[in-house]
Amino acid sequence: MSAKIPVGILGATGVVGQRFIQLLENHPWFEVAWLAASDRSEGREYAKAARWRLKTPIPQSVANMRVSPATPDGAPKVIFAALDASIAAEMEPRFATAGHAVITNSSALRMAKDVPLVIPEVNPDHIKLIECQPWRKKSGGFVVTNSNCSAMGLVLALAPLQKHFGLETVMAVTMQAVSGAGYPGVASLDILGNVIPYIAKEEEKMEEETQKLLGKLNGAGVIPAHFKMSAQCNRVAVEDGHTESISVKFSKKASPNVISDAWTSFRGVAQQKQLPSAPEIPVRYMDANDRPQPRFDVEFGRGMTTTVGRLRPCKVLDWKFTVLSHNTIRGAAGAALLNAELLKVEGYLD
Amino acid sequence: MSAKIPVGILGATGVVGQRFIQLLENHPWFEVAWLAASDRSEGREYAKAARWRLKTPIPQSVANMRVSPATPDGAPKVIFAALDASIAAEMEPRFATAGHAVITNSSALRMAKDVPLVIPEVNPDHIKLIECQPWRKKSGGFVVTNSNCSAMGLVLALAPLQKHFGLETVMAVTMQAVSGAGYPGVASLDILGNVIPYIAKEEEKMEEETQKLLGKLNGAGVIPAHFKMSAQCNRVAVEDGHTESISVKFSKKASPNVISDAWTSFRGVAQQKQLPSAPEIPVRYMDANDRPQPRFDVEFGRGMTTTVGRLRPCKVLDWKFTVLSHNTIRGAAGAALLNAELLKVEGYLD
Amino acid sequence: MSAKIPVGILGATGVVGQRFIQLLENHPWFEVAWLAASDRSEGREYAKAARWRLKTPIPQSVANMRVSPATPDGAPKVIFAALDASIAAEMEPRFATAGHAVITNSSALRMAKDVPLVIPEVNPDHIKLIECQPWRKKSGGFVVTNSNCSAMGLVLALAPLQKHFGLETVMAVTMQAVSGAGYPGVASLDILGNVIPYIAKEEEKMEEETQKLLGKLNGAGVIPAHFKMSAQCNRVAVEDGHTESISVKFSKKASPNVISDAWTSFRGVAQQKQLPSAPEIPVRYMDANDRPQPRFDVEFGRGMTTTVGRLRPCKVLDWKFTVLSHNTIRGAAGAALLNAELLKVEGYLD
Amino acid sequence: MSAKIPVGILGATGVVGQRFIQLLENHPWFEVAWLAASDRSEGREYAKAARWRLKTPIPQSVANMRVSPATPDGAPKVIFAALDASIAAEMEPRFATAGHAVITNSSALRMAKDVPLVIPEVNPDHIKLIECQPWRKKSGGFVVTNSNCSAMGLVLALAPLQKHFGLETVMAVTMQAVSGAGYPGVASLDILGNVIPYIAKEEEKMEEETQKLLGKLNGAGVIPAHFKMSAQCNRVAVEDGHTESISVKFSKKASPNVISDAWTSFRGVAQQKQLPSAPEIPVRYMDANDRPQPRFDVEFGRGMTTTVGRLRPCKVLDWKFTVLSHNTIRGAAGAALLNAELLKVEGYLD
């Protein structure tokens, strides 16, 4: 009976690389066959090369795997990537050129014209951009990206609103978890009892990615959504889960009931095709006046569900609400994995 | 050798009451002569009645003072109040009726038509409302209030902007310290590794108080400032210091330099009259791209200075910035104390 | 196809009561049929009466259950109790008198001569004390207790050492999680960035319970283990998981290998009879020089495994090591549940 | 009108280097004249080279100072050092050889036979070891060290006990602040909601330094105190302040009153000679049953006082208590500064 598809992980020792390994354990379609990381780790056993920072143990099958050099030779066709942007900018094209399907969490190529930035529930048709990629034409390789962790939860919450009510303006203020900064990432002396009102390049990414994700595919590119958008990004002393205070202006009139219905009834291709990593409910609405909260709500839907709450009128725009999303699952490794599953059912991994 | 003015504290055992005691230690004009708290504390030594939660020790002169009943008999003329709103609603009028000057941090009467809500640097003329109070006419007593801790830092940052550029729209998202909730206040199980996107009645207070503070005195009342305002309030795991992500729209064009100059050069009657608790600089602007931060910046100006930073254009409104203010000093006890000093130099405490 | 045994929970709305409900969801032998809490909650739906503080949602079957009065009338025969000690002291005998099997986490009766204090892996024979209880003789009812959360992890780590090497001296310093104090429990202003070197009555409980648990059943009572023991208990800013720095002196010579073997090979009746809540491995030894750590290791064995690490020689006694145990699972609700399972297989719940 | 003594700081940009600068601002005897750090910082303005992590601002006189190369040329005679041990091992002898008085917080030379490890209140006579140093004989230069931050608070608490009651055994378990690990030091992902039961080489340092500090000067060396000592060191989520749970055995009988008197009445040469950085009270005893606590007590005596509390009998040794000490002031920069002041009054800096 059919074997699983072997996959490789670029940047396997980092916080997101670890999440890939965790989420791929017992995956019905994929299995980890190859790991690469920085030169320092090359040739070492994974369990020794990585400083494992997750609550579940390293899967046994991966613990003793040797870390390979980060080159296409010998790597499986399907590659998950979790590299720093500067390294990804060079490495991902190299793997695509060599014929690999690069499904990446890195920001390096997200805004490239012919690179799809995809959330399966939101804009699955954008994957067609793959066919415009020169790599695809030459070797069959391609690159597909998912969004920044701060944009992810927001876009899942906005997609049903855009569809039902039209979006004119979006204002977002984030309170982001430290795991979003990788490891060692944020120093404890910087965050204990503190808020840091700055994350390098985060506001720019959040603004432009949100508009590309909610934009329209138009031949060889995407026309960004036309609503106005402004983001302010803060770091707080939370381990996992980005909380966001959002205000929006709609094109059409709405009421709390139809808005929460729009969220609750929202489903996408990920749910219709029952992708293994798809959450049953992509957007959950909580009624309680003090939720969502990262400590209690972030793991809902195995970290793949965005939770929304605190819907109330805004005296400047139309509506205010709070969004919560798991930044290293739905906002990183889980997002790439769901993209891989979409690519699989669409025949791109054959 | 002029004697100091004896003052009393209503609600002396709480977090804000403790700050009053701390700030009044060695005050050049006032000295604590009377303490009252709930029935439970009555008759006990202050050091035993209060669960002291500050880093400096209880002043010796106060430690052994007996907690008095919370009634006007025997209380000094000048009363600082730090009571829960529901108790304040009844207690403050009773003291004012009995001829006391009630300088209060409570929200109970802040929005009452004839009760001044005052920040000495911002709207010192509003104290004239005192003369409209029925208590004043009968017994000489009156009530003066300061704002909620979340409005305080914001209004100090907005006042120079309003003056120079005119305000059309203000959007605020707060990340508030736990000390704002009093003691025991927020349970540790609720806030460790967490964000709580809700503080009861805080958004309403922040919106309406900001507009009253920046409004115009008009005979027996205040015409609220006409700009649009929306607030979202969150609690974070910070001990002291409310951080706020702000967006504003001006009536006039501005540039980063003139905006930061407006902040830096801002002075008010508190500075001109050299009130003892006035900070040299009411609004400080920091250039560093990741400041202000509560852990490092909240105690500037002995907790009386508002710090602003991260000024940058906003794609929806005009400008974005971050505000930081000490919530139990400038946002509570220090605010009331500065109001008392203003009242003193204006002759209201004679 | 035998039906499940209906069980009731006394103190169902508290932190430990919630854990009972969570652990009993889908339990193969027991099902929650009755909930009681303080008068304030009586008659309300559970989901409204409880301030649910766990990451998994309230089980649907329990959410809409009405909270019953805390009296034996109408309560199931098997009762799990999670009451404050002062209330338990009166309530637990009342239920036992009425014929109920009271399996309690409360400290009230733990040290009573005829009340078993039991850990199934350590001293399962102590449950025979039930037969000495006057309630048992009259109505069939009885009380069985589990230990304090700080003693639990320690005793599981000590039991194999006692058996193999004999214990002469035990010194323990704890760093305990805030969930051990219930809800609201520790105020955030008390624990953020802090250590509290005091937990009321904890050191006494830890010392005397450890000696009773490791003591010998002797007719109608237990002869406490004779080793010397001293405990110091501290509270730290951790959500779940008590970490303990331990030093011990043995009667016999040992080596690191035989000690870690003693831990690793340790099994008890809970494992032999495959009780549903028994962890596969009651005591896990970790080799890494910086483990165990609560954030990463506390949930091992679904929170029922004690993890030990950092074994090294002690210059005063013989050996030093670190113990970690989940305080509200293994140290509270899970402990009582495992005791219930032991009672079931021993025929006490028939 | 004598000029101040110019001093230099080696390792000026680190956490301890910053404390030196902070503590030397407005010092009556010393003034910062020279700063050195790693090559990366050389030639840059201090305010740009250092990532300042203290709550008070960088002193203006230092902010614009250029960072010098870390070589003796051009450095002042008196050098404070805060270098990593591996660098200090090479650098400190080089400065001493060149005739400098090196007053260091580094561990590199603490246990060297002819290098004094000194606390002015405890063993001021040990500075005579300077005369045994080959550097001293050749160039006049010398090295004086202070202890590790975990040993410092303990030794101040033990010294009066040793004097009055004799020490036979000391057991210590620490809960140490993150600032002790420098910057960036401990990653936030490692410490939020966590305890780390390991600090590299800390237990060894704590044990051997405690015994050298409380030992006897004997010609060209120190005979370590003969009591038995065992330490276990943990890291907790606290910014500043090491808390320690201590058990001791005395040679003589004692009672709580005489013990607390021994602490409270303890004074040393630092107090007698009124050294500028000496706390009025080197050891403070607090009666409250839940103190000392780092958040509230660590800054007592401007961070130079050790606070002791929770004195109670120990069932294994004689007495248990809790010690709190500021790890970057009394346990690092403040310790070196006090040593410099002692050297000054003893004529070693002339």
Structural write-up:
Four copies of one chain form a homotetramer. By secondary structure, the first copy, chain A, is an alpha/beta fold. Chain A has two domains: 5-148 and 333-345, Rossmann fold, CATH 3.40.50; 149-326, Dihydrodipicolinate Reductase, domain 2, CATH 3.30.360. In chain A, 30% of the residues lie in helices and 22% in strands. The first copy, chain A, has twelve helices and 13 strands. Chain A has helices at residues 15-24, 46-49, 60-63, 85-97, 134-139, 149-165, 188-191, 202-213, 256-264, 269-272, 294-297, 329-345; strands spanning 5-10, 30-36, 78-81, 101-104, 142-145, 167-176, 216-218, 221-223, 228-235, 242-250, 283-286, 306-313, 319-325. In chain A, strands 9-6-10-13-12-11 form a six-stranded mixed β-sheet, covered by helices on one side. Chain A has a five-stranded parallel β-sheet with strand order 2-1-3-4-5, with helices on both faces. In chain A, strand 12 and strand 13 (319-325) form a beta hairpin. In chain A, helix 1 (15-24) packs across helix 12 (329-345) and helix 6 runs parallel beside helix 8 (202-213). The longest helix of chain A is centred in the middle third of the chain and has 17 residues, at 149-165. Chain A is globular, with a radius of gyration of 19 Å. The model of chain A has no long low-confidence stretch (mean pLDDT 97). The interface between A and B is large, with 41 and 41 residues.
